[in-house]
Each structure stands twice: as C-alpha cells, then as structure tokens.
Design a protein that fits this description.
The chain is of the alpha/beta class and about 400 residues long. The protein is built from 15 helices and 12 strands. The strands form 2 sheets. A 6-stranded parallel beta sheet has the order 2-1-3-4-5-11. The longest helix is centred in the last third of the chain and has 19 residues.
C-alpha cells in the first residue's frame, strides 16, 4: 500500500491532538505519513499532499481550490468539500446545567455577554431541570461601575447560586472578585468554567471546569479524514463533538450539611459498580433505612438509588468516551449486568443510546449516507435511537443479563 502524505497545520502545536491522530493511524494500520507544520509561511509552500488537517480557523492554502484534496478543519466557516469539526456549545451548556443540579444548586446564572451559544443550552436545560435561571447583564448601565454592580447583584441574588462562565479565564476572574469582596465560594456562589486549564486546578479555590480534551478533537479529525480518503463526501453542516465530563473541584463542591451523607456519598462514588443494598448502606451510616432515605432526600433531593445511578452513569460515560470496550463489557463493569441495563440507564437519564452517545463524543455522524463500508471506526457503529418508541435489544448470552437491572432494585 502506497504512502499517503497528510499535512497537519496548527499555529500552536497540541501534542495530545497529534497523539490521537497517530493512535488512530496505528490502530487502523493506515499508510499515512503525517507532516506537522506550525508556520503559515511553510504551510503555503506545501503542495504534494493527499489530505489536510487544519487547526482552529486556519485558512486553506491558495492552491486547494484547484486540487481539492480531502480536508478536515477544527472549527471555522463551512466550505464545500471541507469537513468542519467543532465542540457542541449547546451541549456544553446542558452539561453545565446538569452539573449544577447534581451539586445541589437551586439557582443558576450567567454573567457574561449573552453571545456564547452555550448559554442557550444552559438556560433551557436548567429550566427543564427545575432550576431558576438568572442573568446579570454586564452591558447594562455605566461600564465604569460594572464590577460594583456585579458584587451588589451577587450579594442580593438568592443562594446557593451557580454561575456558568463560557471560559476558564472569566471564571478565574470571578473567583478572584468573590475572594476580594468576601463572597463565599461555593457556599453562596458556585463557579464553573470551560477549557479545564492547568491553572484552574491551583486557583483559590480550585475551579471546576468542563473538559475540552484535545485527544477527542484529534480522534474526530482522523475519523473524518479517513472517511474522505475512502470516498465519502464531506457533510454540508459542521460536525459537533459532545463534551463528556466536568473536572469537579472546590468552586462547585458544596457540602450537603450532613456529614454522614457526605461520607456515604464518597463511599458510593468510590464503588459505583458494587452491589449496594439499602439495609447495608443504612448500617454503614449508623441509621435505620427510613432515616437514611429521609436524610438523603433532605441533603440531596434524591434517593440513594438515584445517587448510585448517577455515579454509574458517570463511570459509563467515561468508559464510553475513553475506551473501545463494548457496550456489554461497560455495562458489566458498571454493575448493570450488560447491554440492556446500560441502555436502560441512558434512557432513564434522557440520553441517546450508549453507542450513539459514544459516537457523539467523537464527532461521528450517525446517518448512513455519511458512512462508507471501507472505513472502520474504533467502536461498534449504531444508528441513532431516540427515547421515543425506544426498545432495548434482546439480551444475549454474551451480555451476562438475567432479566432485571440488578442491585439498585433493592432501594425501590
């Protein structure tokens, strides 16, 4: 098989992204010879290539309109023949709303200019989850008094209030502002950013942030370039990648006010796949079973079973995003028996099927006209199955399923 020259142009080199592309190449034994360029002057001199990968908003070379070799771009304006991959901002907003709800915030807000697309997803998801959405408009009034107005607004707002910032840097600025003016984080105000910068882990307090992993970007770009090189057409619309997780740190980690329930939650989070039962957890907490349920409800607004399902869902999402294990294997690792238990867990959370969710995290389209039989992707491809009219597949011997979703049933 003849070698294929693939040119990757990025103004700032990202080793995680490059490593993900190389991992995909090795995994599929592709004859790609990757040439990495970080200077625009050098990139304009490149001509004899079989495929192009472009960094964020990087321009196409002038000769591309004549040759139109397969091209995948990370963010940018869609152009005919170019696949554009981007982070789904609305999904980032929905993830932020879900995080604040899980952390026990009843009120949420944004304080940045309302141009970021993720704020729409955040507001809709928060409202749907029963949270009260507030917004501070920094463009109103005299800009010279904006900081004073913000502090006054933060103190007067109902607490606990979770504030979603579209990037880590404004979130870090907000943390510093709260610290200077005696606004308590996270007891009064919780702050969540996006990007998970290294500095966020050492801020005062450490900042919770939605992860934007470069490895997922690299994987998606490699998958779509492989499709184009195999004869598929570039999709007309940009291809979204769905974020998967939050780096949870002190800026949003509110104590429940019940030390017994806090310790029990830490135990459950460390063993999400274990076969927990209500009586066993009550004994561990030194409570009766009715007391356990009442205190869980008061502290978290959840039952112990619901909290366990959250931890299992989080573990399953991590495994789907980070590994190529089968859905059945992940279901077993999460204490759900296999495929059926995992699909039921995702359906109950209002999520697409596990296969589709995994594809979304890697920017893989689910419609058949974007697929080619010659392109293998590193996980089982499944069509999108929504929750309406949804039925799980019949369990088979490989799933290890014996009819019922285990362990959690003892709480119901």
């Amino acid at each position: 098989m003849s070698r294929m020259r693939i040119c990757l142009f990025m103004a700032t080199l990202d080793q995680q992204l490059i490593g993900a592309i190389e991992h995909y190449r090795q995994q599929h034994d592709l004859p790609w010879q990757l040439q990495v360029i970080d200077r625009k002057e050098a990139f304009t001199q490149v001509h004899d290539v079989d495929g192009i990968l472009l960094g964020s908003y990087a321009p196409l070379p002038s000769w591309w309109s004549r040759r139109r070799v397969p091209c995948v771009r990370w963010r940018g304006i869609p152009e005919p023949g170019v696949t554009v991959v981007y982070w789904d901002d609305a999904a980032i907003g929905r993830l932020a709303a879900r995080h604040f709800r899980e952390q026990g915030f009843r009120y949420v807000a944004t304080v940045s200019k309302p141009l970021y697309a993720g704020f729409g997803g955040f507001r809709e998801a928060a409202t749907a989850a029963g949270l009260t959405f507030l917004r501070f408009d920094p463009t109103a009034g005299d800009a010279d008094h904006g900081v004073g107005r913000l502090i006054t607004w933060l103190r007067a707002a109902p607490h606990p209030l979770g504030i979603f910032c579209h990037q880590d840097r404004p979130a870090l600025w907000l943390l510093e502002l709260c610290r200077e003016h005696g606004v308590r984080v996270p007891d009064e105000i919780g702050v969540l950013g996006v990007d998970d910068l290294e500095i966020s882990a050492v801020s005062m307090p450490p900042l919770s942030s939605i992860q934007i992993p470069s490895s997922a970007i690299g994987m998606a770009m490699a998958i779509h370039l492989h499709r184009l090189l195999s004869g598929a057409s570039a999709p007309s619309d940009p291809v979204p990648i769905t974020p998967t997780r939050v780096s949870v740190r002190k800026s949003t980690m509110r104590d429940t006010g019940d030390a017994v329930i806090d310790r029990l939650c830490n135990y459950l989070a460390s063993k999400p796949a274990a076969a927990h039962s209500g009586p066993a957890l009550a004994k561990r907490a030194g409570l009766s079973l009715p007391q356990l349920h009442r205190r869980f409800r008061k502290a978290l607004g959840l039952t112990p079973a619901e909290q366990i399902r959250r931890y299992r869902l989080r573990l399953a999402q991590d495994l789907l995003a980070d590994t190529d294990q089968t859905v059945a294997a992940i279901g077993r690792r999460c204490g759900l028996g296999g495929t059926v238990g995992l699909w039921r867990l995702f359906r109950a959370a209002g999520l697409p099927s596990p296969d589709r969710w995994r594809a979304m995290t890697r920017g893989v389209p689910d419609d058949d006209h974007h697929r080619t039989d010659s392109v293998a992707i590193p996980f089982p491809a499944q069509p999108h199955i929504g929750t309406a009219g949804w039925e799980p597949p019949a369990p088979g011997p490989a799933d290890g399923v014996e009819g019922a979703e285990p362990e959690v049933a003892s709480f119901i």
